[in-house]
Amino acid sequence: MKKCFALILILAMLLPAIAIAEGYAGEITIGIYEPASGINGPGGKQETLGMYYANFVAPTVELSDGVYKIKLVEVDNQSSNDKAPSAAQQLVSEGASIVLGSYGSSVSIAAADIFDTAGVVAIGISCTNPQVTLGNPLYYRICYLDPFQGTVLANFAKDEFNASKAYTLAQLGNDYDVGLAHYFTKAFEELGGEVKGEEFPLGTSDFTAYLTSAVNSGAEVIFAPTSTEFASQIITQAAANGITIPILAGDTWDSSVILKAAEGTDLSISVSTFFDEGDTGTLAAEFVSGFKAWLNENPEKLANNGGNDIVAAVSALGYDGYMVALEALKLADSGDRDDIADTIADVTFDGVTGFIAFDENGDAKRDQAFIIKSDNETVTWEFVKVQTVSDISK
Predict the structure, then answer these.
(1) Is 186 helix (H, G, I), strand (E, B) or coil?
(2) Euclidean distance between CA atoms 113 and 218, whole angstroms
(3) Rounded to 5°, angle at Cα 128 from 206 and 34
(4) DSSP code per residue over 323-350
(5) CA-CA distance, 394 to 386, in Å (whole number)?
(6) 351 CA to centre of own chain
(7) Of 254, 257, 272, whose CA–CA distance to 180 is shortest?
(8) What span, in angstroms and rounded, lies between the C-alpha atoms of 52 and 55?
(9) How far is residue 227's CA from residue 212's CA, in Å, rounded to a whole number?
(10) Vertex 321: Cα angle to 319 and 324 (nearest 5)
(11) pLDDT tens digits, residue range 256-284?
(12) Which domains does the chain have, with CATH numbers?
């Protein structure tokens, strides 16, 4: 055992020297703080794939004193608020200069104090709850927020379905679910609509009673901003009970898991998201073609993407998040945590999901969302519209 430990220690000491020998000035660690298991595991894997593809495209960063190799260290926060702090602490202990993640607002909020105490900047990718950055000076993010997303979806419910009554369903105690349901309700009621809202406990597998409640309430749309695990059960059970009320959801439902669950059904499923695979812009098109080719070269990567090469919006965001981290290193001209913390607020980047710049809270200045709808015959997402702040205010 002592010999094994000694060998490991020697190898660890040699790694920087090996990096230098290969022509690098050194190595900088970027942490990946994502769920690879639990209710948000599928989405976390897709978000992480975007980061690994970005590292494939840009495996190094050039600073004034030389070129540094980027090392990715990944931890699984297990979609659990209880496990989140220890997962975050592992990245701190591994020497991460900057951290990316997480898919899921609750686990992001649960880890914020750990990163703040260690002086590590965290860049949220798709964690949309406002509480992620509020009061957490070292947490930034590149996605839009739930007040905007909820407003977008409430307006879409009124415009697309002429709905005057809505039903919301969220997981009890889940910051993302409950927060987004709240913002949807607030916006829908301000538009003159009525909302009945319910929450279900973690571990629920039978949603029949909730779906029956939606029907009995006279709802013309169901808004269910849940994890994909619960979403697939809601979709399957709604179809089995002959319920055809249009279902709306937020960015978590932008997943092949949803498409598979809806395949062959008569359900109308519309979601708001950060990116459209069919975007013909040069940056977006190049990302999509490159990412698909990269996925299809490796069966494991393809499996982590849900078994197909459909490009999830969180993968595009994961890619942009990694590139923003590189820009942060360049602006700081350093891999030092304090240097990054001092300069991160001034980072800008023209990404595949749009231009990224931070406001005074560390939130990206986003003003548009994509609305997509499931095509249950071709099992693909169909682009519906781009919804902006100006559209909503008209």
Answers:
(1) helix
(2) 43
(3) 75
(4) HHHHHHHHHHTS--HHHHHHHGGG-EEE
(5) 15
(6) 15
(7) 272
(8) 5
(9) 20
(10) 115
(11) 899 999 999 999 999 999 999 888 788 99
(12) 20-143+281-363 (3.40.50.2300), 147-273+370-393 (3.40.50.2300)
13 has a pLDDT exceeding 60: no
Return the pLDDT at 4.
Answer: 46
Q: Could you give the count of Cα atoms lying within 13 Å of 155 in the half-sphere of its Cβ?
A: 19
Residue 303 φ/ψ region, left for φ over 0, alpha for ψ in the -120 to 50 degree band, beta for the rest: alpha
Q: Where does the chain show beta strands of DSSP type E?
A: 26-34, 60-63, 66-76, 98-100, 121-124, 139-141, 165-171, 194-200, 221-223, 247-249, 269-273, 348-351, 354-357, 368-375, 380-388
> Which token pair is 327?
């820009």
Q: In this structure, what token pair is assigned to residue 311?
A: 């490009």
Amino acid at 270: S
Q: How many residues does the chain have?
A: 394
Taking CA 106 as the corner, what is the angle to CA 255 and CA 29, rounded to the nearest 5 degrees?
A: 80
